[in-house]
Amino acid sequence: MSIAAPSNPKEITLRGIILGILITLVFTAAQVYLGLKVGLTFATSIPAAVISMALLSAFKDATIQENNIVQTIASAAGTLASVIFVLPGLIMIGWWEKVPFWPVFGACAVGGVLGVMYTMPLRRALVSQSDLPYPEGVAAAEVLKVGMASRSGAEEGKAGLWAVIWGSLASAAYAAGGAIKFMAAEMSIYFRTGSGATGIGSSSSLALIGAGHLMGITVGIAMLAGLIIAWGIMVPLMTSLTPAAAGMDASAHALSIWSKEVRMMGAGVIGLAAIVTLAGLAKPIYSGLKSAMETARKAKLEGATLDRTEQDLPIFIVGLITLISMVPAGWLLASFLDGTTIASLSVPLVAVGIAYILIAGMFAAAVCGYMAGLIGSSNSPVSGIAILTILGAALSVGMVGRSILGPNTAQALIAFALFVTTVVLAVAVIGNDNLQDLKTGQLVDATPWKQQVGLLIGVVAGSCVVPPVLELLNHANGFAGAANLHAISDQPLAAPQALLISTLANGVIGGNLQWNLLGYGALVGLLLVLINFALKKASNDQYSLPPLGVGLAIYLPSAVITPVVIGAITGYLFERAMARKTGGETAKRLGVLVMSGFIVGESLFNVALAGLIVLSGKGEPLAIANSLSESNTMLIALIVGSALVWGLYRWSARQGEQIGA
User: What does pTM read for this prediction?
Assistant: First the structure.
């Protein structure tokens, strides 16, 4: 096959790789914390692109393609950190006390490499020849084009960097106010409803406000519906059917029923919604794979000349890397079983694990890649993929280990299923990210194979960061539902996704899963699917109510969901206000960057706080004694948070007006 000699812009450079790795390290640490606290992550492509443009603007020979490689490397952070939706489960079940570096690094790296390999053949079908919208990929390309195009673009690039900086500083300062105890960490109210109880809570978190803005109004409304279903219907109803114990206040009564019963129903909603979503994708994914194979066959037969912007890594290299990856994958799984109560079953378990990673990983990568094109990386139902993956892994592993099942054996089988799921989830989320990045690359005339190399670099860099940050947070805070033998603080991180995944694995292998509650949740999920279908049809796809968003709001604590909903609504109102103003589009982009800064600043502050907890040996090293009442600290948190959000939205509007003038 002959390849033309097209123009060859500066693309992969040493400075770009170094900058991409540095941004990856920062964003991965932030994402690990955010995922453990609230069970959500965010796409890092746009803030990475802005930071890259602002810093590389010092070099006159910097190109848009070079900036694209930087954001491609850094985007691995926003996705690879999703493995913490599973990994803390190994601590929760008592398998690990500390997070080991090499097994976690290996699971992330092997899964990430496979995620790139599996989705590479899908590029033509799902990117080049597809009309999928790729909202985040298109947005990142627009940011790169604007930043490189003109003087006003350069001005916007600098303003964008300041937007990230101001947002980061504001959220870090706000989080510090909670750490020193001048502001409440949570604002909540609980009350009796006859013989039952309910309430609502909201974390004092600018990061969650930012996450809501980035998710958008559709997901925000879905989560609001979930809050109403959980705390307006389910909790009052079920607390009235289960009387409170003597001396139990409204708060304890409501939270007890939510955590034991309503939450499992939320898991049922998520599971059903995920299955329906994936079933709906079966036909387009099959068509996409068929088209990709047909295109590759045609190119080979006809000896077609490929333009630079159509050159992927050769398919034989993709296949070779995939096969070679099975060697470290097998070694990882065998090492994980070494010395355990199920070591005698190592050969069949490793064989099942490898087969599951190959087959389930390929399916999950294709599905996640398609969903990235459909609804964006941030909105992809990774939770649903993780739930289905652990159920499949637990059933497969449980069948192999059934002959020697016992208390210690069950724990080992659960741990092995969780570890296999970690690798498959890494495959899925990097596959999701790869196609999103390739869409950005298509729009800025990038070379696909160079982007794929860039993403592999980001995978390795991110894999180096996840284990130490996870162990730091484990040592400082620990995780809800774990023994936390070495944790210093008495305020464990919720790690809600990992708690759900480990509970499901334990239930499937241990035979004590609350199928009735999951079934009730699935019925609610089915009703939501029907409502969403009817709403989309009646509005000609203009409106929707994503069932996965509703399910997440039932499953996650109200303290997490409430600020996300507030962020989605305030973001919608801000963007609507900017729609007809001079420089409105610029102001909207700056608003997105401020919100990204909110997430980065608070998350990095809390990672640093975890380091301080470990160094000082104190659970609350920054706390200062004061005479403020709980209601006063809540009021201060509300006023300061509102002022910061309003002030930075106002700053974005003014900057947009000045740049657009």
Answer: 0.82
